[in-house]
Amino acid sequence: MTLASALTDFIRDAVDLQVQADAIGLGAIFALMAVGIGLVFGVLRLVNFAYGQLIMAGGFALAFAGERGWPVAVAIALCFVVVVGLSLAMERVVFRPLRSQSPAVMLTATFAVAFLLQSIALLWFGPLGKNATSLVSLNRPVSIGDVEIRKITIVAIVTAAVCLALLVLLLNRTSIGLHMRAAALDFSTARLVGVRATLVSSVAVVLAGILAAVVAVLLTVQFPTVTPTFAPRETIIVLAGVVVGGMTRLLPATLGGFAIGYVSGVLGAALPSAQSQYLPSFVFGLVILVLLVRPGGLFIRGARTVERV
Question: What is the C-alpha to C-alpha distance for residues 253 and 19, in angstroms, rounded to an integer?
Answer without folding.
Answer: 24
